[in-house]
Design brief:
- The strands form six sheets. The chain has a seven-stranded mixed beta sheet with strand order 9-8-11-10-12-13-14, with helices on both faces.
- The longest helix has 20 residues, at 435-454.
- The protein has five domains: 1-148, NAD(P)-binding Rossmann-like Domain (Rossmann fold, 3-Layer(aba) Sandwich); 150-169 and 178-292, Rossmann fold; 295-454, Succinyl-CoA synthetase domains (Rossmann fold, 3-Layer(aba) Sandwich), CATH 3.40.50.261; 499-565, Dna Ligase, domain 1 (2-Layer Sandwich); 570-683, 2-Layer Sandwich (D-amino Acid Aminotransferase, Chain A, domain 1), CATH 3.30.470.20.
- By secondary structure, it is an alpha/beta fold.
- Helix 12 runs antiparallel to helix 13 (358-370) and helix 14 (389-400) runs parallel beside helix 15.
- Strand 18 (376-382), helix 14 (389-400) and strand 19 (407-412) form a beta-alpha-beta unit.
- The protein is built from 23 helices and 31 strands.
- Helix content is 37%, strand content 21%.
- The chain binds adenosine-5'-diphosphate (ADP) and magnesium ion.
- Adenosine-5'-diphosphate (ADP) is lined by residues 498, 517, 519, 527-529, 534, 563, 565-566, 571, 592, 663-664, 677-678.
């Protein structure tokens, strides 16, 4: 429990100082100026007073209960100080000091020593190399942190490993007009870690949204499990940095080569119900809205504008980001027509016209709020000099109190109407400068409403002979297993495959009929067709004989397989890769050469729900090719989804499989199924799982 960390009764600052340019001074100052409700105890060996407060020569001399010791002494002194804190019953030490494990072996030794002292006394360690914590709850008002942005209460809680980024998030939330609830920047996270803080924020009833900056993930399964739980009632917004750092690894499968760190993060976040943002600005804008507005029930936006162009911009941006333009009921339109000025437009986007006054805005907002077809309201407004904009601002603020749907306002103006903007903001309504920002924020909110729904989806299962598949795997050597074994594993899960058999002489195994395909089956041949390892259209025995001779000559000693030749169709790829510390991740895309050239693939973590499978298929850019168009038939999407779920089941059942590529599976028109014609399965080298 982190209660004593975020709701301390007293804070000692060990290394407090009267020097304005020191962290020890800043922390004391921050605690004082933000009216910390508990005791503040500066500790300094010689000074008797710091910033007007009585100072103590040692933590051992401090009288009151101390839940947090904020430590800024030099690194070599930290282990002893932690020991003293232990003796005093301090619950948490926030170590701002750097110079520990991040600085090499000597630092690591110091870190071990301080952790050892902490463990002996049951002291929890926050940091080292950390900026600190804050809690804006007026009952606590603790600013145990050395940064400079003043604390303003809000309902977004900030969690960032990096102090610099945490400050950036807080600073800009504040500039927009919002504040935060709790704030944690935990540096090295040797003891108190991201997941634990996430739990604490998740359990805080006043936190409505959690904004995170993640540099590295430690316990990924734990992170996912928590987020899935928390995201049911609080939105979680995240930025992950270091996107470009992951160098492409030398990999042997399609799935591996395309699954860069970045898409892995996407899959993890997707599975966890965490919304990923590309820029801090977008994340903060959305956080502002999440912290102040209700979650929309769906994607239908109602727009109220007093100028045509910006209204249309909103439409474009909303639709471009997956939102829909709400269709108003006849009743809504009649009320608008009756109450607005004659030159208004009463369809969506509503144009109340530039001469609209406060009452017109009030009426439009009320009408949209009452229309069940509208899920959220976006108001892009200009501030014409010929109307009383101040009154419009007041009206929006007043009406908003009774509105049950999210409202986002965009005010396109200059400093002369700063007070209008303030009036709206002070009613807890997010105001942005650009129509596009407002639209994107609403899109993020609608996305969260979707996430909430899908967190309830159960993993889909597929029937399979797990024991049979395990047996095949256990007999195979590590590395790429044979084609026939790989196909047998698919068959154990009732996956439709092209009949495949090993061939000794040019004899056709009984169940296979011409035409056939002859293929080389060797762990060393990654792309068979590139090296003459696939011979198609073999129609007769004599031709097969000749092909066998040729291929044996080309790949001396390699095994050959003969396979039923399937009719042409759309080719897709389904892949699976088990990521260390994460679990199995599935990939879907169009098969063949396109797959590597276009990188048009989707990733999801197993186990998939039915909804996941459907979304995986639909998010790729080439989806229109599968969905069918004027001269292309729609393919059997249900068969693809079923296959994805079977592969997900295999991934969950058989941890010995490290990687798997089904490339291609040939999909036929709707209702006509799918056939896997090529599969590669790589067996884990050691017995490690997950
Ligand atoms: P590789 O991927 O190792 O080059 P494949 O077995 O995937 O070899 O074969 C290459 C291509 O040949 C496939 O993408 C598919 O277009 C075609 N092909 C392979 N086997 C069959 C088959 N049994 N029926 C129809 N087409 C096939
Ligand atoms: Mg292939």
């Amino acid at each position: 429990m982190l209660d004593s960390l975020f709701r301390p009764r007293g804070v000692a600052v060990i290394g407090a100082s009267n020097n304005t340019f020191s962290i020890g001074n800043r922390v004391v100052k921050n605690l004082i100026t933000h009216n910390f409700k508990g005791g503040i105890y500066p500790v300094h060996p010689k000074e008797s007073e710091i910033l007007g407060l009585k100072a103590y020569p040692s933590i051992l001399d401090v009288p009151g209960p101390v839940d947090i010791a904020s430590i800024v002494v030099k690194s070599t002194m930290v282990p002893q100080v932690v020991e003293d804190c232990g003796k005093m019953g301090v619950k948490f030490v926030i170590i701002h000091t750097a110079g520990f494990s991040e600085m090499g072996p000597d630092g690591a030794k110091l870190q071990d020593a301080l952790m050892d002292a902490a463990r002996r006394y049951g002291v929890r360690v926050y940091g080292p190399n950390s900026q600190g914590v804050m809690n804006s709850d007026p009952d606590v008002s603790v600013y145990a942190n050395f940064t400079f942005t003043p604390m303003r209460p809000g309902r977004a809680s900030i969690l960032a490993q990096s102090g610099g980024v945490a400050e950036l998030l807080n600073l800009n939330l504040r500039k927009m007009g919002s504040g935060f609830r709790m704030y944690a920047s935990h540096g090295n996270a040797t003891d108190v870690n991201t997941n634990e803080i996430l739990d604490y924020f998740g359990n805080d009833p006043e936190t409505r949204t959690i904004i995170m900056h993640i540099e590295s993930m430690k316990d990924t399964p734990g992170f996912i499990e928590r987020c899935r739980r928390i995201a049911r009632d609080k939105s979680i917004l995240a930025i992950r940095t270091g996107r470009t750092a992951a160098a492409a690894k030398a990999v042997s499968s399609h799935t591996g080569s395309m699954m860069q760190q970045d898409s892995l993060t996407d899959s993890i976040f997707e599975h966890a119900g965490v919304m990923r943002f590309g820029t801090t600005e977008e994340m903060i804008s959305a956080a502002y809205a999440f912290a102040t507005q209700p979650v929309p029930a769906g994607p239908n936006v109602g727009i109220i504008a007093n100028a045509g162009g910006p209204g249309i911009m909103c439409v474009d941006e909303c639709v471009g980001h997956g939102l829909s333009l709400a269709k108003f009921s006849e009743e809504t339109k009649a009320k608008l027509r009756a109450g607005l000025i004659p030159e208004s437009y009463v369809e969506n986007p509503v144009d109340v016209a530039a001469t609209a006054n406060a009452d017109h805005f009030g009426l439009a907002i009320t009408c949209l709020n009452e229309d069940p077809g509208v899920d959220s309201i976006l108001i892009p407004m200009v501030t014409p000099f010929f109307v009383d904009c101040e009154a419009i601002g007041r009206k929006i603020a007043e009406v908003a109190k009774t509105v049950t749907k999210p409202i986002i306002v965009v005010v396109m103006t200059n400093e002369n109407w700063a007070s209008t903007v303030e009036t709206i903001k002070s009613a807890g309504i997010p105001v942005f400068d650009f129509p596009e920002t407002g639209a994107r924020v609403l899109a993020a909110m609608a996305r969260y409403s979707e996430i909430r729904k899908r967190l309830d989806e159960a993993p889909a299962g597929a029937a399979g002979d797990k024991a049979g598949a395990q047996e095949i795997l256990s007999k195979a050597p590590a590395g790429f297993i044979s084609q026939t074994d790989a196909f047998d594993i698919l068959a154990a899960y009732k996956i439709p495959i092209a009949r495949t058999s090993q061939i000794a002489a040019a004899e056709l195994p009984s169940k296979i009929k011409f035409p056939v395909v002859l293929k080389v089956d060797s762990a060393d041949v990654v792309h068979k067709s590139d090296t003459g390892g696939v011979k198609m259209d073999i129609a007769r025995k004599a031709a097969l004989q000749k092909a066998v001779e040729e291929m044996s000559g080309r790949f001396p000693g390699a095994k050959l397989v003969v396979q039923e030749q399937c009719p042409k169709g759309a080719e897709i790829i389904i892949g699976m890769k088990r990521e260390k510390g994460v679990g199995p991740v599935l990939m879907f895309g169009m098969g063949g050469v396109q797959v590597e050239a276009m990188k048009d693939v989707s990733f999801r973590m197993a186990p998939l729900s039915e909804g996941d499978a459907a979304r995986m298929v639909r998010v790729i850019r080439s989806f229109p090719l599968l969905k069918g168009s004027r001269n292309l038939p729609a393919v059997d999407l249900a068969a693809i989804e079923k296959l994805l779920i079977s592969v997900s089941q295999i991934a969950m059942d058989l941890p010995e499989i490290a990687e798997m590529d089904l490339n291609p599976a040939i999909v036929y028109p709707e209702g006509q199924g799918i056939k896997v014609v090529d599969v590669r399965i790589k067996k884990q080298a050691t017995n490690s799982t997950k």
